[in-house]
Automatic annotation (TrEMBL):
It comes from Heracleum sosnowskyi. Residues 1-21 are annotated as: Disordered. This is Eukaryotic translation initiation factor 5A. Residues 85-154 form the Translation initiation factor 5A C-terminal domain. GO terms for molecular function: ribosome binding; RNA binding; translation elongation factor activity; translation initiation factor activity. Residues 1-12 have a biased composition (Basic and acidic residues). Transmembrane segments: none annotated. InterPro entries: IF5A-like, IF5A-like_N, IF5A_C, NA-bd_OB-fold, Rib_uL2_dom2, Trans_elong_IF5A_hypusine_site, Translation_prot_SH3-like_sf. The keyword Protein biosynthesis applies. Belongs to the eIF-5A family. Pfam families: eIF-5a, IF5A-like_N. Keywords: Hypusine, Initiation factor, Protein biosynthesis. eIF-5A seems to be the only eukaryotic protein to have a hypusine residue which is a post-translational modification of a lysine by the addition of a butylamino group.
């Protein structure tokens, strides 16, 4: 036994709750899949027949749900793929700060101040114009794999 104190800082994250495994052959168009460590919406799936080495292969084409970038992957249909836990929440827009961060009202009545305006120029324009006109706006926030981004807007003004 030593008298030294050991401090372990856990910097690694197993990512256990961010994704779940699903057999490649069961993933369909409009579902979600992780390609190159990015959460993607599947826009195209094609399956090849079993070849001389015995595995049918699935060819996935997906769009990154945050950047819109097109990503592709080929996986044996019997193997597991990671599927991200994707959730969508609606918040009322309270304020837009000068630095691009927004203040959102949660259902519990608290505020959420850690989100920036989205990268989509059209959506940013809609949000800013609607907000400057004094409309009551509700934004949809999509979250997956530790990332969050606004992806839609609704006007709930009377």
């Amino acid at each position: 036994m030593s008298d030294e104190e050991h401090h372990f800082e856990s910097k690694a994250d197993a990512g256990a709750s961010k994704t779940f495994p699903q057999q490649a052959g069961t993933i369909r168009k409009n579902g979600y899949i992780v390609i190159k460590n990015r959460p993607c919406k599947v826009v195209e799936v094609s399956t090849s027949k079993t070849g001389k080495h015995g595995h049918a292969k699935c060819h996935f084409v997906g769009l990154d749900i945050f950047t819109g970038k097109k990503l592709e992957d080929i996986v044996p249909s019997s193997h597991n793929c990671d599927v991200p836990h994707v959730s969508r929440s609606d918040y009322q827009l309270i304020d837009i700060a000068e630095d691009g961060f927004v203040s959102l009202l949660t259902e519990s009545g608290s505020t959420k101040d850690d989100l920036k305006l989205p990268t989509d120029e059209n959506l940013v324009k809609q949000i800013k114009v609607g907000f400057s006109e004094g409309k009551e706006l509700v934004v949809s926030v999509m979250s997956a794999m530790g990332e969050e981004q606004m992806n839609a807007i609704k006007d709930i003004s009377k």
